[in-house]
């Protein structure tokens, strides 16, 4: 059979192979576009240098005032602003990636910067790497307590831990934050492409204090009185104007006569002097951090929502 007498029928060659090869711009046009790209790269590099110099000046003035270099709330505000004005063919994911690397570099420029991770499988290690950049030293710790200990010992500036979930291993790590003077300051990932399922999540913990971003969720550690049930704790929180969107109970070892502790996640930013805390009828209630509501996560989904 020759090509000429082949039976008519479905074309065996995929349609894409028939498509004409994309035309490279002809010699002159290609050179002109590459010259334009070179000039833009120079401009970007100059702007990055000027940005780093501005951060260095800020760090100098902060050295006098004190305070940590890492400011997750400021990073969240910058990213929200840039995502809101984002346009053009560069994927938003690339924009976020680039700025995450910039933040990692400008944080490390100011002070030692390393991250201690307690991971369930690879999840929190991956989230920490994506959030804190490719060059930031990450150390995996076998327990949540060891990861937190690395921060209190000053070996790391941030601990990344799984968002607590009842029944998960070491889900009670949050009960130690108050006495260690540590706070949750961010939720990872901060950005999810539209339509992507929320997968594993992590909290970032530092020795700094959480700061508001304008769209936040706060975490409250509650020590109940006596045999408080989950419903009772939720009601008492709601009565104080702190209705929890999520409530996690930690009952301690079986037989231990300790009242339950609860982790309440509430909408908005709750500072230590918030009058609603004084209005709540618990043995103790204490903010243990807050985080910027991640971008691209549907309203109503809790931090750990899958
Ligand atoms: O705004 C600050 O406090 C900075 O240190 C600057 C900067 C930045 O590069 O924009 C760097 C690190 C912080 O985590 C947040 C922001």
Automatic annotation (TrEMBL):
GO terms for biological process: chorismate metabolic process. Residues 24-114 form the Chorismate mutase domain. The keyword Isomerase applies. The keyword Protein biosynthesis does not apply. It comes from the Bacteria. Residues 30-64 form a coiled coil. This is chorismate mutase. It comes from Roseomonas acroporae. The lineage of its organism: Bacteria, Pseudomonadati, Pseudomonadota, Alphaproteobacteria, Acetobacterales.
